């Protein structure tokens, strides 16, 4: 009878230890994952807030430049350059600024050193830039193209704002934005070194910039964080991807090992007392 009682007690003890270990494993796994997800969400929210304010302000500056040009009765190349200097100081994501006349010819550019080869060129019809310019004229607001090859070199986007004189359309201002410059000067400092990221143009449905490695792309996206950024009349999705997954397995394994050792020790001491 004693032997049977001992076996029942031992079995009950083993079952209790196993149940406790399972509950601990689940709790620790969920806790570690939640901490990891909260960290990603916190970075995402802070980055979204600061980046949205910066991008909206700088695109707004381009619209203000266009409005100022339209109100300048004696507009010439000198006054354009004076306004361009102030604009580029306040909106550094733009590498240059260009004035296009009613025939879509690039009449004035600033700074010239960053726009060599663009002066006097005509906007290509039936291009993404042309469609964006027309959209800007129709809405009276800044509009952004998708990813294009910039005349200044490199890949980027073109932002247009219409110039109206006495309610009549009189030209456009064009601001080229190198996508790598936005990524390195604005996005990267906001998200920090703890994340790799990709920028996706919602309208085009394509990735326009990425720091993701092949290993990142092969890893589960379960811990990714997302936020949107307005770029004139477009939206960009920024995907934050942690370069490592949470160490849940190691933590759970360590806790379970400790519980197993503790359970075995208690059982051993109990047996010795009997």
What does this structure look like?
With about 270 residues, the chain is an alpha+beta fold. The protein is about 50% helix and about 20% strand. The strands form 2 sheets. Strands 1, 2, 3, 4, 5 and 6 form a 6-stranded antiparallel sheet that branches. The chain has a 4-stranded antiparallel sheet with strand order 8-7-10-9, with helices on one face. A hairpin with a 5-residue loop joins β4 and β5. α1 crosses α4 (about 180-190).
The number of distinct helices, counting runs of at least 4 residues, comes to 6
Total strand segments:
10
Strand content: 15-25%
Structural class: alpha+beta
* Overall pLDDT score: 78
Taking the sheet with the most strands, its summary is:
6 strands, antiparallel
Give the helices and strands as they follow along the chain.
Answer: HHEEHEEEEHEEHEEH
Summarize the amount of helix as a percent range: 40-55%
| Overall body shape | elongated
Low confidence ranges: 248-252
Work out the radius of gyration: 30 Å
Distance between the termini: 15 Å
Secondary structure elements and their pairing?
Layout: H1 2-71, H2 77-90, E1 97-100, E2 106-110, H3 128-139, E3 143-144, E4 148-149, E5 155-165, E6 168-178, H4 179-191, E7 196-201, E8 206-210, H5 214-218, E9 225-231, E10 234-241, H6 248-273
Antiparallel strand pairs: 1-2, 1-6, 3-5, 4-5, 5-6, 7-8, 7-10, 9-10
Helix pairs in contact: 1-2, 1-4, 1-6
């Amino acid at each position: 009878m004693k032997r049977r009682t001992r076996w029942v007690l031992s079995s009950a003890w083993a079952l209790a230890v196993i149940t406790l270990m399972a509950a601990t494993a689940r709790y620790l796994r969920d806790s570690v994952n939640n901490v990891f997800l909260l960290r990603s969400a916190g970075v995402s929210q802070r980055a979204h807030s600061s980046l949205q304010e910066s991008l909206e302000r700088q695109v707004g500056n381009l619209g203000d430049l266009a409005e100022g040009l339209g109100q300048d009765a004696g507009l010439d190349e000198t006054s354009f350059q004076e306004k361009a200097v102030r604009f580029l100081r306040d909106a550094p994501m733009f590498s240059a600024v260009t004035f296009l006349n009613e025939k879509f010819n690039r009449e004035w550019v600033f700074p010239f050193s960053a726009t060599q080869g663009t002066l006097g060129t005509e906007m290509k019809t039936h291009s993404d830039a042309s469609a964006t310019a027309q959209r800007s004229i129709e809405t009276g607001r800044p509009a952004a193209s998708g990813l294009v090859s910039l005349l200044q070199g490199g890949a980027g986007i073109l932002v247009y704002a219409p110039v109206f004189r006495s309610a009549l359309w009189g030209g456009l201002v064009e601001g080229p934005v190198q996508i790598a410059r936005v990524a390195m000067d604005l996005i990267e400092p906001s998200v920090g070194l703890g994340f790799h990221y990709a920028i996706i143009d919602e309208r085009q449905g394509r990735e326009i910039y990425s720091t993701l490695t092949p290993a990142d792309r092969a890893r589960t996206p379960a811990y990714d964080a997302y936020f949107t950024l307005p770029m004139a009349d477009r939206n960009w999705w920024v995907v934050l991807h942690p370069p490592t997954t949470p160490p849940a397995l190691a933590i759970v394994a360590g806790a379970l090992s400790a519980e197993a050792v503790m359970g075995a020790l208690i059982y051993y001491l109990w047996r010795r007392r009997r």
